[in-house]
Probable nitronate monooxygenase
Amino acid sequence: MKLTNDVTEKLGIRYPIIQAGMAGSTTPELVATVSNSGGLGTIGAGYFTTDKLDQEITHVQELTDLPFAVNLFVPSDKLYLPEKVEKMNAWLRPYRRALNLEEPTVNISEEEQFNTAIELLIEKNVPIVSFTFGIPDGAIIDKLKQNHMKLIGTATSVEEAIANEQAGMDMVIAQGSEAGGHRGSFTYVAGDQVPLVGTMSLVPQIVDAVNIPVIAAGGIMDARGLIASMVLGAKGAQLGTAFLTTEESGASTLYKNAIQESKETDTVVTKVFSGKPARGIDNDFIHNMNRYDDDIPDYPIQNQLTNAIRKASAQNGDTKWTHLWSGQSPRLARAVSASTLMQQIIRHTETLI
Ligand SMILES: Cc1cc2nc3c(=O)[nH]c(=O)nc-3n(C[C@H](O)[C@H](O)[C@H](O)COP(=O)(O)O)c2cc1C
């Protein structure tokens, strides 16, 4: 087994290890450290304003000359149903009251923000862009490709992987159900649920169905996970939770500790925080709000409705009402620097293979 392949060649990196673009938790230091260690660092730009994205890219470019990626959320069709928002506001009132918070105004226009981000990535010569929550329009894909950018899509099923290939993505991430954070899904299965297929099942089935390189994601924390993914036919791995607890990550100490104190059985997939299914550590907010599962407004509405509650709770040093995204392998998370983590994975992989 070799560590250099289509993925390392196309992305211009030494090792097929990608740090997931974790919106809200990446820092320029984390991204640049991973790239400078031979992997691919990714700016999690999903929630950024254009100004913030501009600053972060400039900062990363100051810290590394090597390739890095920016991860964006593809806007999706959503419905703003005032009666649903009103109901949710009533259910959220006790939390807001306890934390002294006002009801927020909701803004659902993601499209404009996304299009401006695309223009900025071209202007700043960002070499690689990864997407989640769907596939951008053909015109955007063409424009990025004309600017020689490499594009990485996300799939949680074979059908989504084929759609990514057909749309012209250069490679696709197979995101298994173990994965921390939001499901990248953009199709539904029976009962209006998103696909939840484990990494070990998903990767070889996607590998058999597409010709573009596949990158495994979900529960991979170390050399064992990387090698296992490659045996299944993946050409690399994307790690989120493993980088979340590193020193350079933007996650708070409260959050990092919560992951390190968790067991493999502690996470659940829930829509209650954002309106989209995401895997995180179970807590009081999830327990209480899960009963309204059928009435949760779509992303990004629910995300905005719960945002201040989550922030205030975390600022109070309290994990009970905030999101704690984590994959299913928290016992393997280490509090080390990102360069140490990269070195350990690379060294151990080389020894094992
Ligand atoms: C805190 C956190 C935030 C995440 N945010 C994003 C994101 O903004 N965009 C994205 O494509 N994936 C995001 N993900 C999912 C990762 O891309 C990846 O699928 C996942 O981390 C893999 O599973 P693991 O956490 O077990 O390594 C996030 C994951 C975590 C843990």
